[in-house]
Amino acid sequence: MAGRPVDHQRRDELLDAVVDYTVEHGLSELSWRPVAAGVGVSPTTLVHHFGTKEQMLQIVLERLRQRMFAATRDAAGAHPDLATAARAVWVRTSDPRRQAEFRLFFAVYGRALQAPEQFADFLDHVVTDWMTSLREARVPDTDPETATRTATLVIATIRGLLLDLLATGDRDRVHGAAESFLSTLEHRP
């Protein structure tokens, strides 16, 4: 006997609620009972919509990735130059309202490096999404190899600055360093 079909609209609503819960509570609380209680459904409902706990984690990470990427892309506007794209990434990631989101991002990053087979999809996208976007934002007539090196530098610098900010909370110092770095992108030939 087949189970009831999944209501995709309800699944999307639940997924957004589970993502919000995970951002607020972290990975350690990502198990059926706490999540179900946190979003106001039964554990059975979560299993029906998301399958196993591991499948739910993959789906949550994918939705979070989509949200982060879309919000930054929207902030940068259509066809931004490299400096505008990098600044949009920094502004969004360093926003104090996003601290929990990026703590979760780095927690997942660390776990993914320890268990790459479990987090293969995360690792496949964690650099390539941003790399593709930043390479597209390059200065006209920049060769692809230079665009790739520059995008790599931008990603690594912003992530390093963000880790520093999350670890120390020293906003003035870290933002000053970010401004110094971002200004070098604005004055590229």
Explain what the structure shows.
The protein is an all-alpha fold and 189 residues long. The protein contains ten helices and no strands. The chain has two domains: 51 residues, Arc Repressor Mutant, subunit A, CATH 1.10.10; 123 residues. The mean pLDDT is 89. It comes from Nocardia xishanensis.
List the helices and strands and how they pair.
Layout: H1 8-25, H2 32-39, H3 43-50, H4 53-76, H5 82-94, H6 99-114, H7 120-125, H8 128-136, H9 144-168, H10 171-186
Helix pairs in contact: 1-2, 1-4, 1-6, 2-3, 4-5, 5-9, 5-10, 8-9, 9-10
Task: Write out key terms for the chains shown.
Arc Repressor Mutant, subunit A; 2 domains; elongated; mainly alpha; 10 helices; 189 residues
Which outline best applies?
A: elongated
Q: Helicity level, as a percent range?
A: over 70%
Derived from helix and strand composition plus strand pairing, the structural class reads: mainly alpha
Largest sheet: none
**Tally of discrete structural domains:** 2
Keywords: DNA-binding, Transcription, Transcription regulation
Pfam family, one: TetR_N
Organism: Nocardia xishanensis
Protein name: TetR/AcrR family transcriptional regulator
